[in-house]
Automatic annotation (TrEMBL):
Cofactor(s) essential for the protein: Mn(2+)
EC code(s) of this entry: 3.4.13.9
Residues the entry annotates as binding Mn(2+) 2: 243, 254, 417
Record-linked PANTHER family: XAA-PRO AMINOPEPTIDASE 3 (PTHR43226), XAA-PRO DIPEPTIDASE (PTHR43226:SF8)
Protein name: Xaa-Pro dipeptidase
Keyword Cytoplasm: no
Organism: Vreelandella malpeensis
Gene Ontology MF terms in the entry: proline dipeptidase activity
Length: 432
C-alpha cells in the first residue's frame, strides 16, 4: 500500500540524483563522497557530546545521528550508502528503518568505520579535516571544493514536497510541547519542570532536540539565547518565553511563544497581543519576489508604531527607527532560513553563490535573500526590555518613557515565531 510520505521521499531522492549529476558535471567531478561526521570524546574524558549528522548527508538519508558513514554519488549509478554498524554490546547497533527509501541505495553495513574508494576526479565533503592524514590521503578526493559546496547549499534553499511534509510534521510535534509548556507555566512550575513537560509532550530526548530549548521565566525571557533551567519557581510569575522545536527525519522546526503570567502588568499582556498581530502581518506579506531585508525593515517600522502607541517612546515612530531605538528593543534579525539546520545554509548569499552579507545596521540578520517558491523561513519579531541595551538610550537622553519601561523590565521580553513556506502564489504557515 502506498504511503504518501514515502512517495514524496522517492521523488525527493530522484530530484537529488538529477540535481547532483548536473552540479558535479558543472564543477568537473566524476563522483562525490559525503561524510556524516563523528563525535569525539570531551577532553580528558571517555564520553562524547550529542551528535548531529552533516546536513548534506541528512539531505539524502534523513537520519540525524548517523556517525562515521558515507553517501557516495556517482552520476548514472545508484547512490551508495556505507553505513557504520559496529558489532557492539555496549551500545545499540545502528540499523536501517524498514522503509522503501533504503531500496534507492546500494547499502553496505560496515562493522569498522568505512572509507570509500573513489575513482576519477572525486570530491569529498563533510568534516573531512577530522579524518587522519592517512585516511584523507587514501580517500584520494578534493576536500570541500568551494564551488560545489555553494551549489549544494543553494540546492537546499528550495525545499521539495517531501521536505515540506517533514517540516510540517516537525511543527506539529513541537506544538504539542508548546501546549504542555504553557500548561506547566499555568501550574506555577519551575523552568526545569516546563522543559521536562515540553520534552514529554513532544516525545523527545533533550539530546535530540534541534537546538537547546530556551525556557525563560520573567527576566530570563530577555536573554535571547538563555541557556539554563532554574530548579525552583520564582515567587512572582510575570512571563514565560519558550523557544523550542522538534526534528523529524532530520528537518527542524523552530517555534517561539510568549505567555503572560498573573503578576505581569496589563501593558505586557496587551504588548503580547500586539506582537502576535505584528507577526501575522509580516507572515501575510510573504510572497515570491519579496525581499527579506525589506520585510525586516518593515518589522522595525511596525515595532516603532507599537512603541509609540503604548507610550513607551515619546517621539515619532520615524525617529524611533532613525535613532536606533527599535534596535535596542529588538537587537536580532527577523528570522532565518529553516531546514536540515535551524539556521540553514545559504542565507547570506545570492542564488549564484556570491556573498550578500547583513547590512551594518542589522549585523545579526541571518537572511538577506529574495523569496522564491519552496523557501522555508522563520518570522520572529521581538520586543525586549534588556537593561544593557536600554542604558545607552538613557545616557543619550532619548525620549523613552522610563517609568513605563521600568515597569516591564521584570517581564524580560516577547518573541513570537512561526515557520513559513513561500508558495507560488504567497505563503503557507507551517506552524499550526
Amino acid at each position: 500500500m502506498s504511503n504518501p510520505l514515502f512517495d514524496l521521499q522517492h521523488d525527493h531522492l530522484q530530484h537529488l540524483q538529477n540535481a547532483y549529476a548536473e552540479k558535479l558535471a558543472r564543477e568537473g567531478f566524476d563522483s562525490l563522497a559525503i561524510y556524516s561526521g563523528h563525535a569525539d570524546a570531551f577532553f580528558a574524558d571517555d564520553h562524547a557530546p550529542a551528535f548531529q549528522s552533516y546536513g548534506h548527508f541528512m539531505h539524502w538519508v534523513g537520519m540525524a545521528d548517523i556517525q562515521r558513514s558515507w553517501v557516495i554519488i556517482t552520476p548514472g549509478q545508484k547512490p551508495a550508502l556505507l553505513l557504520h554498524a559496529p558489532n557492539d554490546f555496549w551500545h545499540l547497533t545502528t540499523v536501517l528503518p524498514d522503509e522503501p527509501w533504503v531500496e534507492a541505495f546500494d547499502i553496505t553495513l560496515c562493522p569498522e568505520p568505512p572509507l570509500p574508494q573513489m575513482t576519477g576526479r572525486a570530491a569529498a565533503i563533510g568534516d573531512i579535516e577530522r579524518l587522519s592524514d592517512e585516511q584523507r590521503q587514501a580517500l584520494g578526493a578534493e576536500a570541500m571544493p568551494e564551488g560545489l559546496i555553494k551549489a549544494l547549499d543553494e540546492l537546499r534553499m528550495t525545499k521539495t514536497d517531501y521536505e515540506v511534509a517533514c517540516l510540517r510534521e516537525a511543527n506539529r510535534l513541537a506544538m504539542a510541547g508548546h501546549h504542555a509548556a504553557k500548561a506547566a507555566f499555568i501550574g506555577a512550575s519551575a523552568e526545569l519542570d516546563i522543559q521536562l513537560a515540553y520534552l514529554g509532550a513532544s516525545r523527545q530526548r533533550e539530546s535530540k532536540v534541534p537546538y537547546q530549548n530556551i525556557i525563560g521565566l520573567n527576566g530570563h525571557a530577555g536573554v535571547l539565547h538563555y541557556q539554563h533551567y532554574d530548579l525552583t519557581s520564582p515567587p512572582q510569575r510575570h512571563s514565560l518565553l519558550v523557544d523550542a522545536g522538534h526534528r523529524f527525519r532530520g528537518y527542524c522546526s523552530d517555534i517561539t511563544r510568549t505567555h503572560v503570567g498573573p503578576d505581569a502588568p496589563e501593558t505586557f499582556a496587551a504588548l503580547v497581543v500586539a506582537m502576535h498581530g505584528l507577526k501575522d502581518e509580516l507572515v501575510r506579506a510573504i510572497a515570491p519576489g519579496v525581499d527579506y531585508l525589506a520585510l525586516h525593515d518593515t518589522m522595525h517600522r511596525r515595532l516603532a508604531d507599537i512603541l509609540v502607541s503604548f507610550d513607551l517612546y515619546l517621539d515619532s515612530a520615524e525617529s524611533a527607527v532613525e535613532q536606533g531605538v527599535t534596535r535596542a528593543f529588538c537587537p536580532h534579525g527577523l528570522g532565518h532560513s529553516l531546514g536540515l539546520q535551524v539556521h540553514d545554509v545559504a542565507g547570506l548569499r545570492t542564488p549564484e553563490g556570491e556573498p550578500k552579507p547583513a547590512p551594518a545596521q542589522h549585523p545579526a540578520l541571518r537572511l538577506t535573500r529574495t523569496f522564491a517558491p519552496g523557501m522555508v523561513v522563520t518570522i520572529e519579531p521581538g520586543l525586549y526590555f534588556i537593561p544593557m541595551l536600554l542604558a545607552p538610550l538613557k545616557e543619550r537622553g532619548v525620549a523613552i518613557n522610563w517609568p513605563r519601561v521600568d515597569a516591564l523590565i521584570n517581564c524580560g521580553g516577547i518573541r513570537i515565531e512561526d515557520n513559513v513556506l513561500v508558495t507560488e502564489s504567497g505563503f503557507e504557515n507551517l506552524t499550526p
